[in-house]
Predict the structure.
Amino acid sequence: MAAATFRDKAAIAGVGYTPFSRDSGVSTLTLAVEAILAALADAGLGVDDVDALATHRVGDSTPPWVVAPALGVPEVTWYLDQFGGGSVSHSVVGQAAMAVAAGVAETVVCYRAINARSEFRMGGTGRAPAPVFDVQYQAPYGYVAPAQQFAMAARAHMIRYGTTHEQFGHVAVAQRAHAARNERALKRAPITLDDYLASRWIAEPFRLLDCCLETDGGCAVVVTSAARARDLRRPPVLISGAVWGGGDSLLSGAGAAGGTDLTVSEASRIAPRLYAMAGVGPADIDVAEIYDCFTYSVIVQLEDYGFCAKGEGGPYVASGATRLGGALPVNTHGGFLSEGYVHGINHIAEAVSQLRGAAGDRQVPGAEVALSTAQPGYILAGTSALILRAGT
Amino acid sequence: MSGARPRGGPAARPAEDRDSAPWWEAVRRHELLVQRCAGCGMLRFPARVVCNRCRSRDADWVPARGTGRVVSWIVNHQPFLPGMSADEPFAVLLVRLDDGADAGADIHMYGNLVGADPSTITPGMAVEAVFVDIDDNFTLVQWRPKG
């Protein structure tokens, strides 16, 4: 198998956000432009420094070839308009790092801009199912929404490992406590396990508080060479590991490995390559921003990225390990459950803040290595993740 | 039949593709088929042109036994599509077919539970396929507890 050679060649030099809301009142083009300008300002760069743009979308946003002229980018030498949702979110930044390492681009702005509440609701309400392979075998049964697909997997995990509703609830409660320390977060009022258990059913075994927010917002990060990042305004955050891929589509039939076990995510496939590329292991991770479209996705990834034994994700979160001050603080910004849902990139931006030591009241002391992960492949066959490291 | 109607209205009509058309056509005849690879004999579903084990392009359609086990399930409450109501929770089952189960075929199908209440579902519950005609051109495979 090929070995990646771009460890620490590229860095994240800037992060930018629009406000998060339930109704932005503006276009996704505006969200993209504002997030990119904020990220460039954070890096101490201008539009004239940009030579590449990268995003992902599922027919719900504005592509690079519209955003670049809207910003007045002088010349685009590389762009990426990746099809896909949360599972590819981290591959966008990974591919930008690869482009920088290969010398085809010097300064890439990676962005995601969505009106995921006011215009295009990922939950499916009012929206026709996307025309992909699996849908014809699912939609006629009223099975159309990520909340349902992840609930199906969560149930399988409960059956196999005895994972409990209360353990799902611990994920939601811990992340809300983190969000209370994040001014950007949409949901900051603390919740208790009783609040969680009293929230209404969405798709059993999921309640409302198992589900992430639906958010309007934009977020962008600036990727450039590690050497150049050292001369910019902010401390560089090195992209040490960047991996994407997988193998099986857990919902559309077994791949070559027969991988239809819903209790295992695609993270288990890419984790060894990710750690090998970055030259670290799970014990070296100081803070983890783990894709939390639903509470269960945190539990299964804690297992599949090797932070606890398989099947022990529920007890692990119930132990408090993932809280600030715990062994592995997870989703320090509150995650999609409480900060807002920008489909993955706001996890990357939070990891950058942590590695800069700039996360304020929610700073993990001395954080040097962070994991940030994508939707773990329950909907498309594959996932993506980054290991980031504080540079000097 | 309880739970038999399709959820979600016209948006939820199956969009047959050029690979799956024979399967849906058989469902309209109340036949449940799976593909069988002529190269290695492995059963497969959904329909695809190449066996992902031996890469043979030769396959035929064979009848499935129409029985399986419930691997997992949800009970939906949220009205994600028109035609759903929070007052009418319904189950969606993930069923592992008995066909090829011992040979690693690992064939799964979805469906609603019919003829029983969602509260009666248990892990590994044995179910059998039933065909529910929605209209002249649309039949669904659903699942009921095996008698």
